[in-house]
Amino acid sequence: MPSPNTFPKSVVLHFPPSVYQMIGAKEILPQLLQKFEPDEVRCVQFLRGGKARVTFRKASARDYWLTKVLRLKGHDVPVTRDGEKLSVLHLRDLPYEVHADDLQDFFSAYGTVLAMERSTNADLPSLCDGNRVIKMILEKDLPYFLTVFGFECRLWYRDQPIQCFLCREHGHRAQACPLSGRCRRCHQPGHVARECSQAWSSVSRVVADPVPVPVDPLSVSEPVSVPPVDAQVLPSADKPLVVVDPVDVSNVVTNIFSVSEPAASETVPSKDDASSSASNSDFLGLDGADLFRQNSMTHREGLEDDVLERATEDLADAISKTSRDSFLKLSASGLEKFVVNAFRTKSFVKNSRLSHAMVLNLTKFQKVLRNT
């Protein structure tokens, strides 16, 4: 297998999808050659996945362009050595106003940052959706749950080490988690956190200091104090109580191909509809989102793992904001609409194989809900 130093005169350019999916090689080649000195380039090869290999006449030209930022069609195009792996990181939940320079300094501790972009809404290209796309040469692995400047964020990239959504330990997924099917609070099977009768059983107890009691000096000759009493340590604003709740799925019906017939006048609940038609206790919430993750397929032939995980996260977010009754009433066509509305990336909507896989996941999830 070639190393990054096997071809000392070549670099690989990594074009973003917004460039290589819209512009052909014939059109991009003249614009690309204008970036280099005349007779500096010996060969240009357009590869799969938006990559192009450029071979220079001299190794010094290769070394020069490894230190520069190539900008084409309004985008920064990362430049790497031939054989060097570029990782594309997708960061979610970080506030929009965190500056890109600060974010670059943060991720520089994990490797070499080559480019950084803001993700935009699929339907409104001028509106950012808050997600960041970071292209870098990773020297250290990064976890799915990552704290950035005090904010708990979610991060994913291809070939990322496996991490469980429930216990957040590495090496296994939620389906194989030892806590799967157990209450998050008491860790006992048979119920979920919202039904737990031992909600306070795991809260620490301390002994309070003796509290002096006002005494009339004329009636008592010796001071009196109240015996020590137990005081519960309750969660405060500074130290909130954090719990993790795997949901019981021990008696799940897994026939994902059994779907209900479409209703005559079915609509997919939107976020506004869910908030107006159900109280907070009716929402599937974080428990429902985690239950969906537990029962979602993580591997499917023809789909990359990171694509499946990103699509699963989109659906989990949408599920958490949907009422249980509304979701259970969705038929096969309603689930298809639910998937389309939940996807944040336009390419996901156009991917029929991915959409079909997610509809099967939702069908399976309906079966799970009916058995819990």
What do these coordinates show?
By secondary structure, the protein is of the alpha+beta class. The chain has helices spanning 17-20, 25-33, 59-65, 100-107, 271-277, 285-294, 305-320, 324-328, 332-342, 346-350, 352-370, and strands spanning 10-14, 41-46, 51-56, 70-72, 75-77, 79-81, 87-92, 111-120, 128-138, 145-148, 151-156, 205-207, 230-232. The strands form four sheets. A five-stranded antiparallel β-sheet has the order 8-9-7-11-10, sandwiched between helices. A four-stranded antiparallel β-sheet has the order 2-3-1-6. The chain has a two-stranded antiparallel sheet with strand order 4-5. The protein is elongated.
Keywords:
372 residues; alpha+beta
Structural class: alpha+beta
Which H/E pattern describes the elements? EHHEEHEEEEHEEEEEEHHHHHHH
Give the overall silhouette. Answer: elongated
Individual helix count: 11
Gyration radius, in Å:
27 Å
| Cα separation of the termini | 51 Å
Question: How does the major sheet shape up?
Answer: 5 strands, antiparallel
The number of strands is 13
Strand order of the largest sheet: 8-9-7-11-10
Layout of helices and strands, plus pairs?
Blueprint: E1 10-14, H1 17-20, H2 25-33, E2 41-46, E3 51-56, H3 59-65, E4 70-72, E5 75-77, E6 79-81, E7 87-92, H4 100-107, E8 111-120, E9 128-138, E10 145-148, E11 151-156, E12 205-207, E13 230-232, H5 271-277, H6 285-294, H7 305-320, H8 324-328, H9 332-342, H10 346-350, H11 352-370
Antiparallel strand pairs: 1-3, 1-6, 2-3, 4-5, 7-9, 7-11, 8-9, 10-11, 12-13
Helix pairs in contact: 6-7, 9-11
